[in-house]
Design a protein that fits this description.
Blueprint lengths: L7 H4 L18 H5 L4 H14 L12 H46 L2
């Protein structure tokens, strides 16, 4: 995102609505890469850009790499939390089936 970019309508989910909305990030410029500025400096510059920009400073929850990271982490954690019980039940059932097969085979062999 550059200084002249206005993505407020997109961030407010008005252009192409998405279920979880959008989060704006400002990547390092080519000049910053060529001058070997650090990633920490780039993140600080991104935070300053959104905090001081007249259009984005009122919507900081929808801006920044830190917010993107936090949001993606929450989505992943919720998915794991929601999916894990199903995985446990499936794995317990598989173990039970294997145990039953082994027990049946063992009893069959003991009969001879």
């Amino acid at each position: 995102m550059d200084a002249g970019t206005d993505a407020v309508d997109i961030l407010n989910n008005r252009v192409v609505p998405l279920r979880r909305g959008y989060i704006a990030v400002k990547n390092r410029s080519q000049q910053a890469i060529q001058t070997n500025s650090s990633i920490r400096e780039g993140l600080a510059g991104e935070q300053k850009f959104f905090a001081t920009h007249p259009r984005y400073r009122n919507m900081l929850a929808k801006c920044g790499t830190a917010n993107l990271s936090r949001t993606l982490n929450q989505i992943l954690m919720h998915h794991i939390r929601d999916t894990l019980p199903d995985i446990k039940v499936t794995s317990y059932f598989a173990v039970f089936v294997v145990y039953a097969v082994l027990l049946t085979d063992c009893c069959y062999m003991c009969a001879f």
